[in-house]
Amino acid sequence: MGISVDKALGIHQYALAMRVERSRVIAGNLANVDTPGYLARDYDFKTALRGLASDIQGMSSQQRLPELSLDSDLRYRVPMQPSEDGNTSELGVEQTQFASNAMDFESSLTFLNMKLAGIKKAIEGQ
């Protein structure tokens, strides 16, 4: 019986990919902070990950893991202080969200590295 790396890593590889995608979305919000009429977007990481985890749990061991698609989870952000030009991207909020996501990315990467180190030790018989 072979080892399925996808199954061994579980949800953690998806969490990392979701963090990367969220960084891209927030970076777009930051780039458009002064664009009139721009509508900031983001997604609820916990809800998206929970949905993906339930999809993975319901799978049999022979099924391939699903492709990651976050387009359906992307939502418009409601501004704390609306601007006159209709832009909903707020510099302070976007910077905070980006920094928080970067720290969460580091945590996810560290956890994934620990999982890989454990798999390596198991393969080597240590």
UniProtKB/TrEMBL annotation:
UniProt cross-references to InterPro entries, sorted A to Z: FlgB
Entry keyword set: Bacterial flagellum, Cell projection, Cilium, Flagellum
Subcellular location: Bacterial flagellum basal body
Chief site of localization: other
Signal peptide start-end: none
The family this protein is said to belong to: Belongs to the flagella basal body rod proteins family.
Subunit (UniProt): The basal body constitutes a major portion of the flagellar organelle and consists of a number of rings mounted on a central rod.
Function statement: Structural component of flagellum, the bacterial motility apparatus. Part of the rod structure of flagellar basal body.
Name of the protein in its database record: Flagellar basal body rod protein FlgB
